[in-house]
Amino acid sequence: MRVASAPHGHVYIQHLADPANSDGVSRLPDPTPERSVPGAPWWPLVMLDVDWINDHAQDFDVFHLHFGFDAVAPAELERIAAALHANGKPLVYTVHDLRNPHQTDPSIQDAALDVLIPAADQLITLTRGAAEEIQRRWDRQSTVVPHPHVVPLDVLDRPREQHENLTVGMHLKSMRTNMNPLPVLRALLDEIHGRRINLLVDVHTDVVTPGMTHYSQEVSELLASVQDRAEVRVHVHDFYTNDELWDYIAGLDLSVLAYRFGTHSGWLEACYDLGTRVLAPSVGYYHQQHPGVLSFDWDDQGQPVAGQIAAVLDEVDTLGPWRATGEERIEQRRDIAATHAEIYRAALVGRPS
To answer: Which InterPro entries is this protein grouped with (predicted)?
Structure first.
């Protein structure tokens, strides 16, 4: 069975396959876009195009869309779905994001979902809560398939370094649209006083460099104000390589996510792969990805609810291990691959050629 997975080069899609390649599914490689984005050589998606579909319909049996359609207008998505169906090709759509983390206005993603979810022959999502929301909003059933591992299998069982003090990390990255890090960071800075905690604050260079796209004077000033605190380390750097990212996450005992909105998190999965606890806000469906994700709430003013972060810092050292094993993730991969093969077969049966 030949599947045009868009985008094939993303780590999530790479880890849908059976580790032994025995699921009978082959996925087309991403065509190289004329102008690819550094770190995302598959974007913009060449496959997500009516002409490409018409010219290459003989090369695939199923079209499986994941993400990467942020800049595609709903009317164009309608034409893409129509082109697939005119060529007798079923559309499978995995609903990763019910709220796009890169868009302030939720109506943009809603308009795209209003096309894709009704048009798809089969729907997949990652959590029960997301499936229930899809059923409620669009009256469509989805197959719930959990997020596969993010970290490579040969890295999963590496031993973790033990720390004398609890090591808490918060990565501001490039201040993605759905992030609200400053209230959380200020709460952490207040709460680590008098505790055996080291706080690592990472941020990309573009956030603290005047004139760059994501520059924030407020972030820069706050980070500068804590540079001399012995228990705080600020690390400004460009994008990590994958290996650097795994080392960073594995060096934390707790990774704090400061998302104002969202649906699912690959970062959370990487933390679970490496044994780093996660503190995430009670938005989206992060807490359904794995039992044991720690929680805080946002109040009406966009601040963490008082006392919740302190309570987590009090308890996190007393909790047991929270980590996937390589064996568990391999078995999960087999199940995920088998489920996807079944979904593709069902899509083909339901779509006349």
So the answer is: Glyco_trans_4-like_N
DSSP 8-state secondary structure symbol assigned to residue 37 = B
pLDDT, average across residues 177-182: 96
Mean per-residue pLDDT, 75-81: 98
How many Cβ atoms from other residues are within 10 Å of residue 228's Cβ?
Answer: 7
Q: Residue 34's pLDDT band (boundaries 50, 70, 90)?
A: confident
Where in the chain is CATH 3.40.50.2000? 2-149+331-350, 153-323
- The dihedral sign for the CA sequence 336, 339, 341, 344: negative
Asked whether the beta carbons of 74 and 111 are under 8 A apart, the reply is: yes
Give the residues across from 263 on adjacent strands. Answer: none
In which residue are the tokens 């997975």 written? 5
Q: Which amino acid is at 231?
A: E
Query: According to CATH, what is the number of the domain 2-149+331-350?
Result: 3.40.50.2000
For the chain, what is the mean pLDDT? 96
Q: Are 172 and 153 in contact (CB under 8 A)?
A: no
Look up the CATH number of domain 153-323: 3.40.50.2000
- Write out the two tokens for 250: 């594995």
